[in-house]
């Protein structure tokens, strides 16, 4: 009984009735043209004409279901009333012809079965009621209802069981039709290979955007925290002996944190935006390099060769972040030892070179002892922490190269970023 009259069965019955209702406009259109070919009157006066109109309505419904929006509308009904797992259905409009044809087949199946169930639901209960009440005493049933010809004579005893059987058959037919729609929905309304590919590409773009924003946060906040920690520690050690140095350190901490809060607001603004393009970005460029070096927390010997120009914004932003991460590494592993930064402007590329000492050996002291040469940074496959991986990823995204490793007892970071078109 639960299969025939349970909650899911009732919802599927409603789904089928709605399918029959959706078929009615197409049936009425077909009923206008069918008499033209049959030579008769109204289709409602002839059962064969009605069957012909029903058959002609199905192709019209199939043509209408080729519209892209037919799939999401069908999915809503299949999910909410048909009891189909939402993960197996595609919510997006059908763009390819393969998806449209599959949707059209399902829609025809829906309205066709719904029309048949609707017709039976209108006709069979009345006949079943006649068969059931025929043996009821006259004082309870009123006038005697007319019986079908097959139930005259002794066969009248079979009328009530036959009526109950008709009702059960109607319920069973509706349950089978609903189960058939639910079983075919994932195959006909589910994502096509093109839909799955588009979903994978969208997911990859989203992950790329999140990874880029994560690098922005790591580079900005990580550098500031390293500089603030170093300056606060130095100020604490000489608090009583050099008040001017402490005052300068606190000023640098204030400026660095204020600048970082602005960058954090910018990055979080991107996270709140809808429809962000994967390649879009924001943040400081090489124009802000002077402020970064002035409040880096470590002495920096900065030199430039070539004729400085204006690099494209993606290259300029990447160069700023690379210098920022290089300074963070120097603060973490080189203490307050001087850092040498050299930027070489060429016609086709921008080269960044940073040299710093290794005090704690956390990122390559063992390799420095063995004289291991610098190695390329290739994103996630490179060792040495998230910072070096981020530098490698930034360079790779711009078709550049990044190398890091020991060089004569010091740590050298070299990054070469192409300048598109040779323009600066």
UniProtKB/TrEMBL annotation:
Region (Disordered) location: 366-386
MF (Gene Ontology): kinase activity
Species for this entry: Actinacidiphila polyblastidii
Coiled-coil regions listed: none
Transmembrane feature ranges: 12-37, 49-70, 105-134
Gene3D superfamilies: 1.20.5.1930, Histidine kinase-like ATPase, C-terminal domain
Protein name: histidine kinase
Record field: catalytic activity: ATP + protein L-histidine = ADP + protein N-phospho-L-histidine
Domain of life: Bacteria
């Amino acid at each position: 009984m639960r299969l025939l009259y349970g909650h899911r069965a009732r919802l599927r019955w409603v789904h089928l009735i709605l399918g029959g209702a959706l078929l009615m406009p197409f049936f009425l259109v077909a009923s206008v043209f069918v008499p033209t070919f049959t030579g008769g009157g109204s289709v409602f006066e002839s059962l064969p004409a009605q069957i012909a109109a029903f058959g002609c309505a199905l192709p019209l419904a199939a043509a209408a279901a080729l519209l892209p929006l037919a799939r999401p509308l069908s999915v809503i009904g299949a999910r909410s009333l048909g009891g189909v797992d939402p993960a197996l259905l595609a919510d997006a409009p059908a763009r390819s012809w393969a998806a449209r044809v599959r949707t059209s087949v399902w829609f025809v199946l829906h309205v066709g079965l719904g029309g048949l169930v609707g017709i039976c639901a209108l006709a069979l209960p009345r006949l079943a009621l006649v068969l059931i009440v025929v043996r009821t005493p006259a004082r309870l049933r009123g006038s005697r209802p007319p019986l079908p010809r097959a139930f005259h004579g002794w066969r009248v005893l079979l009328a009530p069981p036959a009526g109950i059987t008709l009702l059960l058959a109607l319920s069973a037919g509706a349950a089978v039709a609903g189960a058939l729609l639910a079983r075919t929905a994932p195959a006909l309304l589910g994502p096509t290979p093109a839909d799955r590919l588009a979903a994978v590409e969208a997911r990859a773009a989203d992950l790329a955007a999140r990874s880029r924003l994560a690098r922005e946060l790591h580079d900005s906040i990580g550098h500031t925290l390293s500089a603030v920690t170093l300056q606060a520690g130095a100020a604490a050690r000489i608090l009583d002996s050099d008040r001017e140095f402490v005052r300068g350190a606190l000023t640098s901490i204030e400026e660095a944190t204020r600048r970082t809060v602005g960058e954090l607001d910018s990055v979080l603004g991107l996270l709140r935006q809808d429809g962000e393009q994967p390649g879009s970005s924001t943040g400081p460029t090489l124009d802000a390099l002077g402020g970064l070096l002035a409040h880096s927390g470590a002495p920096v010997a900065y030199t430039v060769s070539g004729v400085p120009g204006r690099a494209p914004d993606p290259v300029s932003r990447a160069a700023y972040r690379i210098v920022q991460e290089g300074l963070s590494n120097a603060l973490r592993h080189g203490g307050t030892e001087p850092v040498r930064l050299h930027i070489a402007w060429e016609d086709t590329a921008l080269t960044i070179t940073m040299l710093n000492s290794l005090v704690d050996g956390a990122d390559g002291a063992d390799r420095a002892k063995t004289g291991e040469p610098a190695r390329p940074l290739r994103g996630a496959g490179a060792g040495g922490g998230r910072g070096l991986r981020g530098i490698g990823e930034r360079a790779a995204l711009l078709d550049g190269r990044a190398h890091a490793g020991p060089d004569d007892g010091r740590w050298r970071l070299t990054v070469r970023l192409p300048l598109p078109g040779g323009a600066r």
